[in-house]
Amino acid sequence: MSELPTPRPHPNLDQLIAVLEYLRAPGGCAWDAEQTHESLVQYLVEESHELIEAIEHGSREDMLEELGDVLYQVLFHADIAAASAEHRFTIEDVAAATTAKMVGRHPHVFGDVVADTAEDVAANWETWKRQQKPARTSVLDGVPAGLPALARAEKVLGRAHGVSAEIAVDENEPALEGEAELGHRLLSLVAAGRAQGLDAERALRAAVRDLESRIRAAESTAARTVVD
């Protein structure tokens, strides 16, 4: 069993935290001081998309900047929470909770579980997550409702694995030769639907909801079988 690594000092991170605290303190920036968790949501979404753009198409400098912007959003929310009388927590609480979660989800590193390959880790990941969240009764619990249809489809398909509700892949379809071809096929489907007045996003949402219903039905059947 491995021990937790020894922390190293992070003076630049501490300085950024101090700058944010100063901006939100009395005499600092009026705009920063007035922000709430809710008012910052739009910026978190924007900064996340800008980071994705930097990862996929930007330079080292672009990625450095956008990672900083996402980090700043995390620190901003933590500082807002630190000033809350009802639901108070600090960035230290965030770090402590995340450390505990990551240690718990890596029993092959910090415990006695054996998982020597990335495939072994992926195969056990959901099991380790469920052990940390025993209140969840379905593999679908925790999938954000606000995900765009395609992202939700990816997530739900991943959760469907092993629940007897997977989508069968048409063996007559020619194999995809990489993501570029997948992208063109998806775009072609969207174009075909658009030509017929169909909404691709709405159609995929409906298909994903149907898959979710099948997953929950399979889970219910499995639960009754165990009880019987």
Walk me through the structure:
By secondary structure, the chain is mainly α. Among the domains are: 11-89, MazG-like (Helix Hairpins, Orthogonal Bundle); 140-166 and 177-228, no CATH class. It is 67% helix and 0% strand. The chain has ten helices and no strands. The chain has helices spanning 11-24, 30-34, 37-57, 60-82, 91-104, 107-110, 118-132, 149-160, 179-195, 200-227. The longest helix has 28 residues, at 200-227. The mean pLDDT is 88.
Task: Report how far the terminal alpha carbons are from each other.
Answer: 39 Å
Ranges where pLDDT stays below 50 over 5 or more residues in a row are: none
Q: What's the helix-strand series? A: HHHHHHHHHH
Strand content: under 5%
Whole-number radius of gyration? 22 Å
Instruction: Please give the number of β-strands.
Output: 0
Largest sheet: none
Helix share, percent: 55-70%
Examine the secondary-structure arrangement and name the CATH architecture of the domain at 11-89. Orthogonal Bundle
SSE class = mainly alpha
CATH structural class of the domain at 11-89? Mainly Alpha
Task: Spell out the CATH superfamily of the domain at 11-89.
Answer: MazG-like
Structure, briefly:
By secondary structure, this protein is mainly alpha-helical.
